[in-house]
Structures are given as structure tokens and as C-alpha cells.
Amino acid sequence: MFEHRRQPLLSRAQYFERLARNAGFALIVTSATLGIGVVGYHALDGLAWIDALLNASMILGGMGPVDALRSDAAKVFASFYALFSGLVFIGIAALLFAPMVHRLMHRFHLETEDDAPSVEKK
Q1: What is the spatial distance between Cα 76 and Cα 69, in angstroms, rounded to a whole number?
Q2: Which DSSP string do the residues of 42-108 spell out, in sequence order?
Q3: Rounded to 5 degrees, what are φ and ψ at 13?
């Protein structure tokens, strides 16, 4: 997925293409996760679609639920959805920052290789 340390740094266009691809994938994962939450809150606690969206969005964003849940099934779902959302948040952050960190590390490595004296094997 990423270039090897001995390969040249990607061009800016290729780098932005990589960022856009990762951002698109992050958007798909976020949308799917939000959809799971909306359907779960609607089906298990009978919340209206807009209220289910609000609750799922708040949990996914790390803010916490808005409406008090009435059924035990909805409370169990909310518990697992909150844990799942935390892991998804970490994964999405990694997905978005990976190209930036890789480019920074790759550039740093290229600079140190150019500055280092060459050592010949005997």
C-alpha cells in the first residue's frame, strides 16, 4: 500500500489521491457505522428515525446518548454500540492520519540517508 523506504517520495498528486482514497473509505465506514446505530435504536427502542439518528451520532461522536432508553434490549445494544463506536473512531483516525505520518517519516528517512556518509563493504 505504501512505498518502500528506498523508493522515492510520491508526487503531490499521488499523495493527495491517497489521502482522498483513505478519506472516502473512512466516510464509508462512518456511514455504515452510523446506519447500524440508527437502525438499532429505531428497531430496539422504537425511537423515531430522527431521534435514532441523533442518538447514534452522539454515541459515534463520543458525546453520549440523548434519550433515555426504555427497553433492556436497547440498553444492551447501546452498550455494545458505544464500545464498537470507540474502536471505529480509533480506526478511522488511523486511516486518516496514516498517509500523513508515512509521508513525514518517509521524507525524514530520505533526508537522513542523503546526509549520512556512505559506508562501503569490504
Answers
A1: 10
A2: HHHH---HHHHHHHHHHHHTTS--SSPP-SHHHHHHHHHHHHHHHHHHHHHHHHHHHHHHHHHHHHH
A3: -65, -45
Distance CA 45, CA 48 (A): 9
pLDDT digits (tens, 9 = 90+) for 77-100: 999 999 999 999 999 999 999 888
Spatial distance between the Cα atoms of 75 and 82, rounded to a whole number of angstroms: 10
**Whole-model pTM?**
0.75
Cα–Cα dist 83/39, whole Å: 17
One-letter amino acid of 105: M
Give the whole-angstrom CA distance, residue 20 versus residue 39.
28
Nearest to 77 by CA among 35, 43, 117: 43
